[in-house]
Amino acid sequence: MTDILVVAESDADVLSSATLEAITAARSLEGTIHVLLFGSSVDADEAAARVGAFGAEELHVAEHELLGDYGPEAWGQALALAIDDMEPDVVVACGTSKGNEVLAQAAARLDLPFVANCIDLPGELADSDDVVLTRVQWGGSLLEEASLSAETRIVSISHHAVEAESIDGPAATTDTFVPELHDTVARSLCVGREMAEAGVTLSTAPIVFGGGRGVGSADAFAPLEELASLMGGRVGCSRAVTNNGWRPHRDQVGQTGTRIAPELYVASGISGAIQHWVGAMASKKILAINTDPEANMVVKSDYFVQGDLHKVLPAVIDEIKSRRG
Amino acid sequence: MRILVCVKRVPAPGAKINITADGQDVDTAHLGFAMSPHEECAVEEAVQLVERFDGEATVLTLGPPEAEEQLRYASSLGVQNAVLLSTDGSAWDPQGTARAIVSAVQSLEAEDGPFDLILFGNESADSGGYQVGVRVAHALGRPIVNAIKGIEPDFDAGTTRVKREIDGGFEIYDLPLPAVLGVKEGLNLPRYPTMKGRLASKKVGVKVIEAAADAGGQGRVRLRQPPAQASTMVKLGDGPEAAPAIVDLFEELGLLK
Ligand SMILES: Cc1cc2nc3c(=O)[nH]c(=O)nc-3n(C[C@H](O)[C@H](O)[C@H](O)COP(=O)(O)OP(=O)(O)OC[C@H]3O[C@@H](n4cnc5c(N)ncnc54)[C@H](O)[C@@H]3O)c2cc1C
Fold first, then answer.
1. pTM, 2 dp
2. ipTM
């Protein structure tokens, strides 16, 4: 019988939705789905009901005083010990920042390969120790078919590649696992947080006004700012803009910036290089405003206005104000 | 105080990435090369720390002889030493890459003493394996935290405070030195090389070490393009006259209340 161990992630004491994506992906493998949860800050009964609904049969809660807050070495060592103890055939996490980090930590400790950011989990992964997986490269611009040879297959599923889908399964059975962690892992525990003020962020805004090199200067972002505040959205930008120091990096959309998924992305003066595109492609709709009808952003958009953004955007502001009266 | 920065030479594609006929690589016939933006920030951070605290920075890359270009770029920004772990340019798997870097770090440290900090990019721009830094740190017995966007070291106390990016803010970690970090773009704003820096970098001696291949359990079968999305672009109009059509779209999508 194949055993699949899904590594859970929690966010502010709540099981993260990324974990449910990983469990959903694991259902394409024939076998028993186990979930490993670190620490006891998440309510175990609630977690058992939640992971059960998505198809997990067993929940193992790893308990240790060093598993209070997140620590890459503490979680990684606990996972490596759980793998030694439970001997699963497949270990899966969602390819979030921490998901990939914890799998890498465990794989390093066990000297096993780890294949990051697969787009799906093929059935053979459950029963063959020599499989081919499809994973993303270039942040999603390219795919790689990668071979994986290992008795324990450690893989992550690319975030958002699979939509979490409940099957209304019964609550998972629960037990505790007490790993013998070394004291040294205490050195990399999270000791605090600095949170920005609440409100819409680039990744949660319903509309994002993105500006690129075509905007021309920091000051020329004023119409984008005004539109964002009129419509409850956020300003985003390309790397050409952050490199010029026109906007802070936290506004950058793309492979090395933020991935956005608004209802509408308005991309003005942005050419749509692949590294920008992969950060914008999850937008429901894209409106490109550009002087160049051949620009990649334009060709891939849903709507296009050809023209100078410095004339178009102020006209849009006037139109909104006049309709509002 | 000594800092090591590990970088990777990658092609710099624009609107599309083309693949070679055998499917084994990105077709770089018409492309320039760069290091990832994450690594550019790692280099900038090392240069800034050396300027603030004295000491020296070393840049290391595992790659083909042409990767000397990225080493010299780092030198032109103010990194003192350069090390090339020379390969034939084929794609190395993460375990093999990490093993080669670990053995190079051990020999560099045996010669000149330990590195207080080793900086990696959070993930490489091309293959994006999310693990080489973690494997190296583990093999060296040092702590590592990824997604770092702020570094405040206290070399006298032998510790560093670092900030990790999370959704809506930062997590704080206090690590003992020596430590390893996976950093992200946004850590700082990298400088451009000066003419003087460029000239000086031509004279920097690059230490070349033949990297011994010791592959792990992941291999490349082939690269392929993701499925193409059907284009359905609708042109709303030209210039400012298109403003009413744009605002109609906002209303249609329920974005204008
Ligand atoms: C490894 C790697 C990672 C990267 N990560 C990112 C990333 O995360 N995010 C990112 O954005 N980039 C990233 N880049 C950079 C990327 O390759 C491009 O260089 C960048 O996105 C270009 O920005 P841009 O579109 O603003 O500028 P350009 O490519 O110069 O395009 C400017 C556009 O503005 C239009 N324009 C000019 N004037 C006007 C006007 N008056 N009105 C209307 N339109 C006008 C032009 O027609 C053109 O289409 C990365 C690159 C690499 C190598």
1. 0.95
2. 0.96
